Amino acid sequence: xxxxxxxxxxxxxxxxxxxxxxxxxxxxxxxxxxxxxxxxxxxxxxxxxxxxxxxxxxxxxxxxxxxxxxxxxxxxxxxxxxxxxxxxxxxxxxxxxxxxxxxxxxxxxxxxxxxxxxxxxxxxxxxxxxxxxxxxxxxxxxxxxxxxxxxxxxxxxxxxxxxxxxxxxxxxxxxxxxxxxxxxxxxxxxxxxxxxxxxxxxxxxxxxxxxxxxxxxxxxxxxxxxxxxxxxxxxxxxxxxxxxxxxxxxxxxxxxxxxxxxxxxxxxxxxxxxxxxxxxxxxxxxxxxxxxxxxxxxxxxxxxxxxxxxxxxxxxxxxxxxxxxxxxxxxxxxxxxxxxxxxxxxxxxxxxxxxxxxxxxxxxxxxxxxxxxxxxxxxxxxxxxxxxxxxxxxxxxxxxxxxxxxxxxxxxxxxxxxxxxxxxxxxxxxxxxxxxxxxxxxxxxxxxxxxxxxxxxxxxxxxxxxxxxxxxxxxxxxxxxxxxxxxxxxxxxxxxxxxxxxxxxxxxxxxxxxxxxxxxxxxxxxxxxxxxxxxxxxxxxxxxxxxxxxxxxxxxxxxxxxxxxxxxxxxxxxxxxxxxxxxxxxxxxxxxxxxxxxxxxxxxxxxxxxxxxxxxxxxxxxxxxxxxxxxxxxxxxxxxxxxxxxxxxxxxxxxxxxxxxxxxxxxxxxxxxxxxxxxxxxxxxxxxxxxxxxxxxxxxxxxxxxxxxxxxxxxxxxxxxxxxxxxxxxxxxxxxxxxxxxxxxxxxxxxxxxxxxxxxxxxxxxxxxxxxxxxxxxxxxxxxxxxxxxxxxxxxxxxxxxxxxxx
Length: 807
Prior knowledge:
807 residues
């Protein structure tokens, strides 16, 4: 019954957007084949450029939209090609070239500098272009775009150079065919657009007009015709690496080294295999760990490049949380609780080792995206010692495991898609296996004004007595997005057994919500503002299992930017008294809940003009609670200073304080124990970067987090979600510190090849000293053992096509 019901819904939604979209009138030129490739030096003076047709008459994208750019700031672009690459030359006029902003940045990062951007879409599908960016300093950035979302974790190897003359600044680019995906056809037309950012004018210009009233920006490409007899190259690239690491802790130093390789191989014209053999993650950034007293795990961002690059297909449906791979052991059978009286654990690995991983992804000319990901992790064991006999034994805490995900994503009409996703986790032996399947859709009318978003998902977990049933979830919303107005109204639920957390991440199930939002925005600047907007939202929540009303939240927010680039905003939020079935940690079907108080909240923020040498961001909030002593407040302050185009520093302080917070502490045979506590946390971060050149830079990242909870009383949770005083329970305060300092030197000595030197100083400490002052706490932290890590890593890019020519 369930399947028929929702398949009917999906069929109706499909008919909602099945009509083809009318092609908008678009700029079109023909490209020119050349026999001699231009030298990529940023100087556009070679004969090969003279016969190229011009892309000109740029228009404004923002802050105004659709106006013809003034002649003194116009841009002229030429596109030519040969058997190996597409070549692009851009001449950007500027009456004051000496003052073109030129702040340095590392690759794939933006700074206070102008940039030139090209999008190339060989399939001309309006949804999935490749994006290549050159800043006025010569720094490169690139991304793979999917449905308007830019993935800057994707990287290609290509060439560019810039020059500045009396007319403005110029860019030359060489995009090898190995960096693109296109079919093997005798004559081809590709979607193109060109963007230019003028930092000092706060403007962005485009070759073809991108209408900001409707649709995605990727739907407005121009067309460049007459690419002839292109032969897709053998896309086989090798990234061999070698690394060495030293780790010093409590006077002991361990040394390690590793060699391995990443491989990229073009299986077909449009599909690529990525593989990592003997992966090395010794130089990934630190996690922003916090003191977590709540019922849900902390979610971390992915910092391993293999798992963050080119994953747009795998992220459809929100079922892929790559941090599950190589995370802490699952220890499903709780080894520590099963020890004999004369046994102790002498070694318990903190992480699981990944053996290898592969991913295959691509998209056909007809818009079908196919993605397959597979990773294998090693069996992980705890070491247990018998204190009476000194006998050593091993116990498996995480088995040999296979993770995989398959995605089929059919795009159509330049604005719609329907996707099928399946994730599977198979563990060796008696440990649990898990499978999740989802149907996901985003459908728009042919004019892109109305849309429907939604999904149906089903999870199944085997060999787990705590999750014997199949779980499922449904979500769908209808919306409008055109001109000044936008709105959305939707409904979703997760039943009590839906659990995607073996490979995905979901904080709470057994919920259902009626949600909606509506807003208004400016489309053109006004006399005083570049832009401003209003937005209202509401969520009405119920428990799915019982249908009990659990609470209502609503809010109104506003944000704006003045003509002087001063940005500011704020929001007001309200939440009714809420039945919280998660904080007691008893399972959502137990009927046990904690009654969270009615909440009123205000937030404000400002951000000054980032083009100035000194700029600052500030935000603050205050929360009050009705008929409850709880209150909360906090602020964030982030000044930054640009000492020169090569050197800048940023400091950030965040402080949050909640007085008389009430939350779960413990459970015994007679009661669920809650505590009344004052909770506070400080986060201090410093970031700095010095660029020796666009290919060589030194960066600093420092973070100190301090979180503490000081208890003033303990209570028993009663049957009505309230608290009754407990005068016998004795609990401890909580004090947690986490310190990380990273110093990184990166030298890109050849295209795609790097030498990276890395140093980390880290300290972590947990105790009960929550009453210390800030500086007393800092002194206490540095009395703890420090870990010093130093590593050096060498990566070299090898292109098979170049090797083949040398043989």
